[in-house]
Design brief:
Order of helices and strands: EHEHEHEEHEEHHEEEEHHEHHH
Helix content: 25-40%
Radius of gyration: 20 Å
Distance between the termini: 20 Å
Number of helices: 11
CATH topology of one domain: Spore Coat Polysaccharide Biosynthesis Protein SpsA, Chain A
CATH architecture of one domain: Alpha-Beta Complex
Structural class: alpha/beta
CATH class of one domain: Alpha Beta
């Protein structure tokens, strides 16, 4: 029986995390392995709530379901890495690792569809699902890798610019068919264990955002493909933990992750160019809004905060990558769990 390690990382959404894990358990029919609910040091009673929820629920006998405490909030990558490594200690022969957001519900065949796709496409190392909202509305599920042209196009938001740079538009929205893309959303991501053995886990230097983009880029540089799988479906509430859709002002960790992604992967000069093009594009968009007498809908002080952050970052050393190898955690080091 193929074994899969499923990680559901929670931060202050324990009831949603339990529901996500239950949907994953249903989708794991025909597979063995473990489902790990990892609390990322939530400042509430999430850990106890998930323990009680797992204890009171019925789980398939061939699945090892546990609730673990990461011990620190190191961000999305660090929390998922903790779960992956713990899962490897439980299921050392797991063929796949599946990352699932706590604010997601997956269709019963979502995991088996991803597995079948990877098995049918040997060059594909990572696969992601089609995502829709509670109202059935499509969510952007696949993207091109970001770069200089996409920075300008996305910030300018002008028809002529988009048409001229159509091959660099970042969001692919919902591709009509399954196949290779630049990167896929980490809300529903299946990776071959052998690929993670090769390239390592998420870079823990990222706190939040750009970590799955970086992972997909590293996979492609190592010779693997990243695929969007249209037939695998999940319902995603979206940004419940991060509150991204309600930001009044963009948090500093978003700027930090963006700068680190570019400077780490392409160099500091490239990162500066990306910022210049973003500022130029955003300025053009705001001039258009002013001419049309429409309000500015960007986050408060977006350009100013980006310039200030990046002007400081350019004089700092680019942080070293914190990429953990695919090694198991020793079980005695884990905090209490619920089987």
């Amino acid at each position: 029986m193929t074994e899969i390690v499923v990680v559901v990382l929670n931060y202050k959404t324990p009831e949603l995390a339990i529901g996500a894990a239950q949907s994953a358990a249903t989708a794991m029919t025909g597979f063995g392995g473990a489902i790990l609910l990892v609390d990322n040091a939530s400042p509430d009673n999430s850990f106890a709530t998930m323990q009680a929820g797992v204890r009171d629920a019925n789980w398939p006998q061939d699945l090892d379901v546990r609730v673990l405490q990461s011990g620190r909030n190191g961000g999305f990558g660090a929390g998922n890495n903790f779960g992956i490594r713990a899962g490897l200690s439980i299921c050392p022969t797991a063929k796949f690792v599946y990352i699932l957001n706590p604010d997601a519900q997956i269709e019963p065949d979502a995991i088996s569809t991803l597995v079948a796709h990877l098995e049918a496409h040997p060059k594909a190392g990572i696969a992601g699902s089609y995502i829709h909202g509670e109202d059935g509305e499509d969510h952007c599920s696949a993207f091109r890798l970001p770069g200089l042209a996409s920075e300008f196009e996305a910030s300018a938001r002008l028809g002529p610019v988009t048409r001229a740079l159509r091959d660099y538009v970042l969001p692919l929205h919902v591709p009509d068919s399954s196949g290779p893309v630049g990167w896929i959303v980490g809300a529903s991501m299946l990776a071959r264990t052998e690929v993670l053995n090769d390239i390592g886990l998420f870079d823990e230097t990222f706190f939040l955002y750009f970590e799955e983009t970086d992972l997909c880029l590293r996979a492609q540089r190592a010779g693997y493909e990243v695929h969007f799988v249209r037939e695998s479906r999940i319902c995603h509430i979206g940004s419940v933990s991060t509150g991204m859709g309600t930001w009044r002002r963009t948090p500093s960790y978003w700027y930090e992750s963006r700068w680190y992604y570019y400077s780490k992967n392409y160099g500091r000069a490239y990162a500066v160019a990306a910022t210049v093009l973003n500022v130029l594009g955003t300025t053009l968009w705001r001039l258009r809004r002013a001419i049309e007498r429409k309000p500015n809908t960007d986050a408060h002080r977006f350009i100013r905060d980006m310039i200030v952050h990046d002007a400081k970052a350019v004089f700092r050393r680019t942080p070293d990558a914190a990429i953990r190898p695919m090694t198991a955690l020793v079980i005695p080091t884990l905090k209490p769990s619920v089987d």
